[in-house]
What we know:
The chain is of the alpha+beta class. Helix 2 crosses helix 3. The model has no long low-confidence stretch (mean pLDDT about 85).
Amino acid sequence: MLTINxxxxxxxxxxxxxxxxxxxxxxxxVNKVSSAVHLRFDIRASSLPxxxxxxxxxxxxxxxTGEGVIVIKAQRFRSLEKNREEALQxxxxxIQRAIFVSKTRKPTKPSKSARRKRVDHKTQRGKTxxxxxxxxxxx
Length: 139
């Protein structure tokens, strides 16, 4: 059971793992042992709340396929079990990111005193800069 938060947990039956050979350096071991993991999670067939499913499907993430399946490849570690844990962690982070709703911004205005202070400050700066001009004789 993968726990996302207090309300959401994903049963292990909904997550499909397949062991594959890892890419990259690793010597002879990389050619013999399937230590990388492909995690597949079907969003539409999952037990997630409907709102969460819609948000996940709307994500512009390359790990979400057109059929609504999340595919995560984990191959950082040489151990199959560690790669499996990392894939689960990345799935949980992806779902948490989709669940989080940011607060809507309420437009605000500066107060009258703030506007007055701003204009006064601009006037004062203008006067200061005017004094920096060239000094003229006789005027």
